[in-house]
């Protein structure tokens, strides 16, 4: 594996997990959390990009 894939997937996973935790906490408290939604979207697309880039090389 390339170092770019490892670093990219690690950061994407961390952002995705933070977004999911933020979203779950906001649902529990009953308010809308916009940054959590964007973090989830960014994390998913970053993971897809990391997988595609790892498969090309």
TrEMBL record:
Keywords, in A-Z order = Membrane, Transmembrane, Transmembrane helix
The reply on keyword Transmembrane helix is: yes
Query: In terms of domain of life, where is this protein from?
Result: Bacteria
The chain positions of domain Nidogen G2 beta-barrel read 1-57
* InterPro entries reported for this sequence: G2_nidogen/fibulin_G2F (IPR006605)
- Membrane-spanning ranges: 6-25, 37-56
What name goes with this protein? Nidogen G2 beta-barrel domain-containing protein
Organism, per UniProt? Paenibacillus profundus
